[in-house]
Structures are given as structure tokens and as C-alpha cells.
Sequence to fold (951 residues):
Amino acid sequence: MGVDKTTFLERIAKPLGRVPGDPPSPRTAIGVPACWTDRPSTQASRTASFIEKFTGLAGEIEQYASVHELRAGLERVLNDIGSDKIGAWGKRAPWPIDVEDVLEHWHALRWEEQTDRRAFDHIHVGITGCSCAIADTGTIVIASGPQSGRTVHQIPLIHVVILRESQLVQSLGDALQRLVQAHGQGEIAASNHFISGASRSSDIENDQTIGVHGPARVMALMLTDLE
Amino acid sequence: MSTPHSSSNVHDRAQQALADDFLRKAVHFTTDRLRNKKQAVTGEFGNWEAWRERGQQIRQHTIAHLDYYLDQFARHLEAHGAHVHFAATGEEASYIVREIAAAKSAKRAVKSKSMVTEEIHLNHHLEEMGVQVVETDLGEYIIQLAGETPSHIIIPAIHKNREQIRDLFEAESGEQLTTETRDLAAFARRRLRQEYLTADIGITGCNFGIAETGSIALFTNEGNADLVMNMPKTHIVLMGMERVLPTMSDLEVFAHLLPKSATGQNVITYMSIVTGPRRDNEADGAEEMHVIILDNGRSRQLGDPDFQAILHCIRCGACLNVCPVYRQIGGHAYGSVYPGPIGAVLSPLLNDGETYQDLPYASSLCGACYEACPVKIPLHDMLVRERQRLVATGHVKPAEKAAFRAFRQVFGNAGRYQTTIRIARRLQFPLAHDGYIRAKIGPVAGWTTSRDFPALPKRTFRELWPELVRKGNGRG
Amino acid sequence: MKVSLFITCVVDSVFPNVGVSLTRILQECGCDVSFPPQQTCCGQPAFNSGYTDEARDVGMTLLRAFRDSDVVVSPSGSCVGMIHHYYPQLFANDPQLHQAAVDLANKTYEFSQFMVKQLQITDLGARFPHRVTYHPSCHGSRLLGVKDEPMQLLQGVHDIEIVELPYATDCCGFGGTFAVKMGEISGAMVDEKAENVARTDAEVLVGTDMGCLMNIGGRLRRTNRAVRVMHLAELLMEGMQLGKAVNA
Fold:
């Protein structure tokens, strides 16, 4: 049952006075208004905005001046959390920074092509990298991949993200354009997650609560890799 | 599924709602919160009118070329390995879902909040064939347990208090729970996690389809849609055919307009962009993805200059939050899946027959909905046009028709008008006391039940005019 | 300036003093005021209920009445909004009438709009030593876009105490035939509006549309709230008289 695509589209085209398949008239208004594109954006302003927005959404952020310090920071964070049920992206995942020694030290469960998702059902902490992060909205962007399973950041109560300051882009649009490029190259990920803070709901008497389905804590460890 | 307000007309349902103090307080509180947050966030964001303008332009262009963008969207989706289905009616869409469920021998399905699945009563159809469907949005889960329907597009369980919610959760689980929000939410997390793990099918709606890449964009704050589409082996997307956008650049506009308008959030917590099922080398994500594109009365609005713009709607619920009628009666009184101003306009357009004919009258035409709409849909004008349609097709009471015939007679001519006023002045004599009328009789009872009506004074303005003009002109 | 009054049916028949105040203010401001007697009503009750033919016949009285007028001023944002927004489409089928409708829309102003935007007067030398709250009417502010002008005129009044009305922009529940057809919902809306007015402890509620004010006033009276309900023109006129008396 259902109708075929041709019939379905004809029923749309006809009342619109169109011949199905005809290209649309040229567009004058695509994407955001000029007020949004005509903004100054510097590395410093992006960093400041990201931190403000990310923490405004109850995200926790630590900044480190060197890879060495970041690794030590990750150690400390995991120590403070005090759980040994840790899951992380695989070794060959697109990690922005190498934190392998820490993950090995904590015997983190690693996501591989052949991983049985159920093995991750009980992790408390998920550690991932990200493809970029958005200054305007405090958003972390994560693409799914063979070594970067979605489960790693969706299942646990605590999500730890490793990123570099140089991965910050200004706007949602900047991040979305990367998907368009990836699509053009036949490489768009099956799933791209734009995560802004902790899982939240106000469905019970308007009282906001966190960690309803996704993580209740999102922590970003950022390497300040720019002057 | 039934609703607690299943009476047949909006008057009766409104009466019920008006008598429900908790409901009214809850609706006031929730809509106040949402609209205040919206005002704050859009004020801080700035240039809100420019964003609305842009939103309207993009939706206008998309709908005017909908066949093109849907075709592009479907081709890209298929290239990414998704199955695309087209359904002319709700029955067809339900049938397609049932066929997929049967092919997968599915026993259990999880769902994230989707108005279009409510529109086609999908849960009911699946349960009939023995597939257990569990709603995973916290609010939807609550009302599913209560056997009710959503009363708000964004906050479905607006009408339930925490004691009722605890009772529903206890009855479902046999566990003892407190009424603390944290405990109730933790229970839902525990409980629903099991559902994700055992479900055969995940069903979601679609906030936006992106033609340029063949992607589905889903917005949630809880993160439930991500689990729904990634954990079960099969992911089914139900989307109204109007939900498409041409490009990712356009999505950026709506990624701002939607959360800001809906809940006053600067950004949605989770925006997930899904482009096909899991790739061959991936170990999670749905193995199979089906996208069902639904018409169900939408194409009838195309080419109609009065109503085509209703397809611009992005289901943000901002019109509910500012509507003074919704504020008094809540969602169930509308008696339709879509409540509030959008429901009053959309329900009679999508459904033939008399069921929703009284909804266009459930508005004072104050225009607050239009002002709040992020894509500038003139809902107040559409309500008038729906009334025009009802008059033109004879779907009005004879008494009303006679009244407006009289109105035309009297007010169509100044002389007749004057005579009528003189007569009325005499006739009102037994009813008027102290310059006011309180009698609850005839057609004015609707007014006088709750307020006084001023009696006609001794002289009209036009009777006073000769004196005024003699004294006044040429003074200043 | 030659000004024709469009008095509206509600003001003409129920609240003539609003028309009297409007006339006197315009006269004080040096306008040569006329009242074309063929006018009755803008036709909005029929139009909003979906009766376009009926609305058109009634609206014709205004097209005829104001055919030769230079400027039309009315004490109702709602009725002027009707002319601005709906007349051109209401008379779209007849080119001549359509032109007349467009012409009328272009020369018609709501009272406060005319005072502030055309005459550029915000201080009439009025004095009004009372606590006043203001209800902005939906059609005047949203449809016609007259948002600031009434407040500018109120702020030009001496000795006045203006208190903000909570939920000021929420509809009072009038909506023409809505108040009768959906009486129970409308009643709940006006009850909340009247409560909000009472909460301000204002002595006077002022507005720019008698439909809304008749509604809110009717509820205030029913619930025994001693709040005086006035059209902006009435308040200004009374204030001007007091102003003159004080300065004399």
C-alpha cells in the first residue's frame, strides 16, 4: 500500500502550477539573515563565547595548555568521578588528542567495528572526541563512525569530551557546512549529534530535571592550542 | 486511547476545562514560563524580526516548490540506503508501518514524541496487531500511562500533577516512589532504558528533512530520539510532507527559530542529523531506516492562496503559549490532536466533515498567535477565512444567518440604523437598570452571564452632533 | 486641517461622549471637523463571522460617507484596522470600489495615531491627577501597529500616575461576536483581565477601543470594582478642561 513517488509528487506539483521535476525559481533568501553572517569572529571571541554558552547549559569545562596537562586532567576527572565503568571511542577513532595512556590505565571499554553494543549498556562514563564545537551555542558536534559509536556518548550518565580550541567554529551554520562538504565527498556520517548541555526535561510540573535519557553531566576537556 | 474530554463540541469541552482549577493553573504557569523565556531569549538574540522574516521566506519558497525538494530529499535518502515510502492518507501510512513491523516480526516498539504519529493514531494501529508501543518522551510516557492524549504540542503532560504522575508510575511498576521530580525522572530513565534495549523498532517523527543531503533533523531535550533511532534494529521515520527544507544553511535558521520559539531555549539540547541507516562498518545505529512521507490532507492546501501558508508551520507551539483562549481552556478542549490556534486552523483543513467545524470560532482574533509565529503565519486571518468558508457552504445556524441578514439591513443604511437605535432605546426600557442591562436572555446571555451590558443612552452621537459643530469648529 | 470623523457604531449608539471628546480635542487642535452622516459601521462583526457580503454592504456606507474627505479620524483601532487590512480585499472584485477602499485606508487614522503621527502633538496641557492603567487593544496594537502612541499621549498628561497593567497585551476576550458565541471562554478571559486591572489599584482604566472597554467595564461592574473606565479621548478631554481651570 501507499502511493508511488511519481503520483505523490504530481499531486503536489499540480495545485502549485508546476511541472514535476522543474527546477525551482532562483532563491533570494537562503540561510541566516545578514545580521548573523556579518559578525566579527576571532579565535578569542569564539573561545570566550563557547565557554560562556557551554557553562550556561551546565556544561563543565577545563582548559589545558599542553597535551601532557590535559592527560593529567583527564586522570584527575576520572579519579573524582570514581567509577571504573568507563567506555571510550576506539583507538583509531578521530581523537583530536591522544589520551590512550589514560584510557589504558583505566581499562576503558573500547568501541570497535565488531563491538557488541550490549557490552556498553552499563558504562557510567563515556569518553569521546568531537568533530567540532560551536561558539554561538556551546554545542559539541559528534559524528558517528566505525570507531566512534553513538552508544559511547548516549548511554552513560557522564559524558567527557576531549577537544582542541582550534576545533571551535563560530556558528551552527559553520558546523552544518562541514556536513554538506562531507556529503559532497560521499562521506557524510550516518549520524551527526549536536549536543548542547545535559539531557533535560521539564515535563513534571515544569520542574527542570537532568539526565532523563542522555547524560546528566557533560564535561569538556579543552587543549588551548592557539596563541 | 481516549481523552478525558470526549464531548462533542468545543463549548462542552471548554466548560469542563474551565471547571478544572488545577488544569487552568498549570496552563497559566506553563505558558507564562514559556513565553517569558521566549521573550528573554529572543530579546538577547536580537534582530528577531529579521529571523522571522527569513523563516517565512524559506518556508514560502520550499512549499511553493515542494515537489522538487521532496524528490531531491527522497533521492538522497535512498542513495544513503534508506527506504522511502509515500502515503496519501493516515491509513496508508499506518499500513506501511504495520507491514514493516510484520516483516520484522516486531513485538515491541519505542517512540519519540511525534505529532504526526498522533495525527494518524499510529500507536492504536500497532497495538491492534499486537505490537507494544512505548512512548519515551517523559511527558508522552506519562500521558500514555494515563491513557490520554497530549494537551500541548511541546509539553504534553501539562495537565498532570506530580501526585498523579507518581501514582501512574507506581501502578505501572509496583515500585514505591516519592513525588520528587528527580525520583520520578530517575524511574523513567531506568524503566525506559529497558524498553530501548528490548525494542525491535524505533519510531520517530521528523522536525526537518534536508533535501540537499537527504538528512533527517530531530530535536529533543531529553535525548530520547537518539536512543529510539539508534538502539533498535529498525528505525521508522514518520514525516508530514511539508517538513522539508532545501539546504543545511536553511536548517541553521530553524535551529534558531524552533527552540527559541518553543521553549525559549537558545539552542535545543540534542539536534541529531541522521543521514541513512548505519554504515557497513558501524557497530551501532539502526540497520534499516524507513522514511514515510505523509500527505493526509496537506496537498489540499497547496495552491490555495488562503491556506497554503499553513504548511509553513514548524510545530513550535509558540501560538499556544500566547493564546488567551488556550490559556483559559488548555489543549484537550480543542478536541483535536493539534490544539491552540494552530489546531483551530489546521484541524478543519486536514479533516473533512463537521467534527472540527466549531474550532475556527474558538478565537477572539486577537492576533497574538500571528505575532508569536516564527514563520509569520497569519493564523487570525485564516480563522476568518475558515468562517467564510463555513458561511459559504451553509454550515451555520439559521438564527445566525438571520441575524447577519438583519445586520446588513440595518447597518447598510444610516437612516434605517437611526430608526432601529430609536426603537431599541424604547425596547430596552424594562431591561435596563441604572444604565446597564444584566438580564441573561436570548443571544446576549453569553455576554450577560459574566458581565453587565451598557444600556443605550438617551442620545446618539449623531443626535448630539448639530450642537457640537455649532459650538466648536473654527476655535483652535 | 479638514478632518472627517468616523465615529463607529458602538461609540455612536452606546458611548457618544467618546465622540464628543474626540470632536472637542480635534477642534481645540485647530481642525475643521465634520461628521458625514451616511456612515454606520465598518462591518467588522459580519466580516469576522465570515459574512463577507453582509460586511461589504455595511462597509459601503463608509466608502460613500468618506469619498470626499481628506482625512478620516476614528476613536477605534479595531475599526481602523478593519479598513486598513481587510477593506482592499473585501472590495477586490470591483475595481472602482477597490480603489475607493484603498483610498479610504490611506487616509484613515486611529485617534492617538493621528494626534502623535500627523498632528505631532503629545502634550495637550491636560491635567489628570489620578492613578491610571492602560489596556492596549489587540487590533489597534497588532493589526494596525499603533503601539506607542496612546502611551505617548498619556505621558503628556500632567499629574497623572500611570501604573503598568499585568498581562497588558493579553486579549480581554471581547472579539466581537466571540463574546456572545463563546461566552464562557470570553467570560473567563475578561475575568482575568478585570482581576489584573483590579490588582493595579488604578482608579481609572483607559483604552482606545470601546469594544474592549465595554467588555472589561462590564466585568468590573459585575464584580463591584469601582474602577472608572474611559476612552483615551475622554481622559484627555477631561484633563484639558481641568488644565484650563487650573491655569485660568
Summary: Chain A has one domain: 40-223.
